[in-house]
Amino acid sequence: MNREALHSAPAPVALVTGASRGLGRALAQTLAEDGWQLVITARGEAELALAEAELAAVTTVLALPGSIVDDDHRARLAEASERLGGAALLVNNAGTLNGAAAPGSEPLPRLAEFPLPDLLETFEVNALAPIALTQLLLPQLRAHRGAVLNISSDAAVVPYLGWGGYGASKAALDQASAVLAREEEELRVWAVDPGSMRTRMLQEASPGEDISGEPLPEQVAPVLLGLVHGRAASGRYRAEDLAAVASGGGR
């Protein structure tokens, strides 16, 4: 899936979750402009419809609103990818900070007070559902010697106060990514920490804080696409390190 193969073959297919806003939306746009067909999903139907309309001006796109924790919805996503020719890239971007709790309603809870139903949903959205969706997509990904891009976080490795549920779920996703990479040697499996970005999710996690100095998702997405173009080795990456290498500042 290097750059030459990408542009000499029929348009490849990418499935992007959480694609209605933030990094998922930016990645979908970047992939569309790079010649990929898209299957996109998110829970917000109105925002997803807007994304679909904008992306349809650039590429073939199928938008399916729904939750990735729903078995039937994941099956529909896999079927949609198959209809377009089979996924060569799966981007597991959809995530939640605090499970079913209302976004921004209160600070992220300490583990001692984390409601177990919310904690369960946090793990379902951030770890279990990406694994389940990957299982469904594996036959397509194997056929295309494709790749899985799992969006991680620095909270997976740094013990921030109040981020125990989110961080632990992302750490689980990191470990699953590492194991999958060993089990599926013909694929590429990347877990990427995109760093802090100027997104609604970060603002909800940091109520009242000024995040205007953080990079936009549109600045980060092309950096992540570099993994695909270079068919980088499977592993865990940080976007800031990838950007430094791309600009000639890496080791």
Structure notes:
- This protein has 251 residues and is of the alpha/beta class.
- The protein has a single domain (3-246), classed as Rossmann fold (3-Layer(aba) Sandwich), CATH 3.40.50.
- It has nine helices and seven strands; from the N terminus they run H-E-H-E-H-E-H-E-H-E-H-E-H-H-E-H.
- The chain has helices at 3-8, 22-33, 45-55, 71-83, 116-143, 164-183, 200-205, 217-230, 239-246; strands spanning 13-17, 37-41, 61-63, 87-92, 147-151, 188-193, 235-238.
- It has a seven-stranded parallel β-sheet, sandwiched between helices.
- Helix 3 links the parallel strand 2 and strand 3.
- Helix 2 (22-33) packs across helix 8 (217-230).
- The chain is globular.
- The model has no long low-confidence stretch (mean pLDDT 89).
Q: In brief, what are we looking at here?
A:
By secondary structure, the chain is an alpha/beta fold. The protein has helices at 3-8, 22-33, 45-55, 71-83, 116-143, 164-183, 200-205, 217-230, 239-246, and strands at 13-17, 37-41, 61-63, 87-92, 147-151, 188-193, 235-238.
Features:
alpha/beta, Rossmann fold, 7-stranded parallel β-sheet, 7 strands
Number of strands: 7
- SSE string, helix = H, strand = E? HEHEHEHEHEHEHHEH
Instruction: Categorize the overall geometry.
Output: globular
CATH uppermost class: Alpha Beta
* Share in β-strands: 5-15%
Gyration radius (Cα, Å) is 17 Å
Question: So how many helices?
Answer: 9
> Helicity, in percent?
40-55%
Give the spatial strand order of the biggest sheet: 3-2-1-4-5-6-7
Instruction: State the end-to-end CA separation.
Output: 25 Å
How many distinct folded domains?
1
Given helix and strand content, the structural type is alpha/beta
> Which blocks of ≥5 consecutive residues have pLDDT under 50?
none
Oligomer: single chain
What about the largest sheet?
7 strands, parallel
